[in-house]
Amino acid sequence: QVQLVESGGGSVQAGGSLRLSCAASGYTYNPYVSWFRQGPGKEREGVAFIFASGDNTYYAESVKGRFTISRDNAEKTVYLQMISLKPEDSAMYYCAAAFNWPNRWRDPQSYDYWGQGTQVTVSS
């Protein structure tokens, strides 16, 4: 079965950087993958999406220019490099996978598999 395990979260000062990893297993064909985040009292929102091949990416406007999603299919790992972090980036970050094209990549219901999350806290 498909499993996703996130790591790399932590506490940083505003302006700092973190790189999140999503280690995947249990599949043969590479899935589409997104990173989502959910802050306290907020809805889960998609922040970055990468095609199965890794040759195209989408980003939420709030993170464009600061976050970069990438993947190493040989290692079955997807990354989220985050720079210039802001306090409003504080949230639990989740990776999610879909094997069918997600018509709405920012919709959590488009994904079948989720990791347990990794916490990111940015202090001002």
Strand-helix topology:
Blueprint: E1 3-7, E2 10-13, E3 18-25, E4 32-38, E5 45-50, E6 57-59, E7 67-72, E8 77-82, E9 91-98, E10 113-114, E11 118-123
Which characteristics define this entry?
seven-stranded mixed β-sheet, 124 residues, four-stranded antiparallel β-sheet
Description:
The chain is an all-beta fold. The protein has strands at 3-7, 10-13, 18-25, 32-38, 45-50, 57-59, 67-72, 77-82, 91-98, 113-114, 118-123. The strands form two sheets. Strands 2, 4, 5, 6, 9, 10 and 11 form a seven-stranded mixed sheet that branches. Strands 1-3-8-7 form a four-stranded antiparallel sheet, with no helix packed on it. A hairpin with a 6-residue loop joins strand 4 (32-38) and strand 5. The radius of gyration is 13 Å and the shape is globular. It starts with a strand and ends with a strand. The mean pLDDT is 97.
Summarize the structure.
This protein has 124 residues and is mainly β. It contains no helices and eleven strands. Strand 5 and strand 6 form a beta hairpin.
Total helix count?
0
Query: Which sheet architecture does the biggest sheet show?
Result: 7 strands, mixed
The oligomeric state is single chain
Termini gap: 41 Å
